Amino acid sequence: MIIISSSIPKSASTLIYNYQEDLLALASQNNAVAQEEFNKYSNCGFLRGIYFNNFLTIIFLKIKYGNVVIKTHSKPSFFIKLLIALGLAKATFCYREPRDIILSAIDHGERTRKGKDASGACKNMITIADSLPIVKSWMSNWYQWKEYGSKINDVYAQLEQLPPDTTHLILSVGGNNALSHIGILNENVASSAQVFSKLADISEQFEQQYEKLLEKILSFNLPTVICTIYYPNHSVKLERQIAIAALATFNDVIIRLAFQAGIPLIDLRLTCNETQDYANALRSDQTFLHRWRENRQRNYERYLRT
User: Fold this and answer.
1) Is 87 in a helix, a strand, or coil?
2) What residue segments make up the domains of the chain, in order of their start?
């Protein structure tokens, strides 16, 4: 599997890239050879973007040698999405708090101006005022990656790849659908009725898509569980309250369809509810998964005792 290691500059992304490169090499000697060949072709594993010419080269290297890690600061471009859609690649994104990025970039810029970095990186980032517009442009790629992810209609392709020995299905989807409509919360409206009207339209569309997907999943005749959308972890209280209120629209649909279908429901709002459960304001972390497994085991043991 090709790993596309995208990131915001100055987000410790090189460290993450090195970890990923080492893991692939440990998994197979062929991967180590493939990475060595790719590093010769690229700038030590870094590509500014993936375009038609290097897209073909990446596929050639994978077929001839093995898997590689591609470090980039690119947005989810057409050819990146194509690699993922073909099942040839997985993508990770390294995020860092923008204020920390600015301070790190200013420090890097000082080293560059002293001649300690011949690449010229961050040389124009002298003050916070200089750095703000640059970091803002860097963040735009993060926003595109944030919105790029599995939505309801993407699950059908995943279902086509179900292993034949699958015994249970757990559906957790809808968060990216909600994210794609987050802009309405900042729109100027004449009255609150307009906001509710738009939310009602979005809810109706979401319900149609989710119900259709659920019917498809239930047609496999496997034990199935569906999950609500967990709350975001915005540091600003007002943003968090608005997001929670808006998510109620989506979660209402999920809960109602679970009851109608008579299938179990996991309410992630009750499980993913501590700061350490989040990788950032919108994404859950591995900590949450470990704690969820522990809770599941305790509940199972309690069930056996009753």
Assistant:
1) coil
2) 2-147, 152-305
Tokens representing residue 160 in the block: 């086509």
Residue-level pLDDT at 135 = 92
Q: Positive or negative, the Cα torsion across 230, 235, 240, 242? A: negative
Note the maximum CA span of the chain.
71
pLDDT tens string 223-262: 999 999 887 766 667 767 777 887 888 999 999 999 999 9
Q: Are 52 and 79 in contact (CB under 8 A)?
A: yes
152-305: CATH topology:
Rossmann fold (3.40.50)
Sequential DSSP letters for 247-266: HHHHHHHHHHHHHHHT--EE
Q: Model-level pTM? A: 0.54
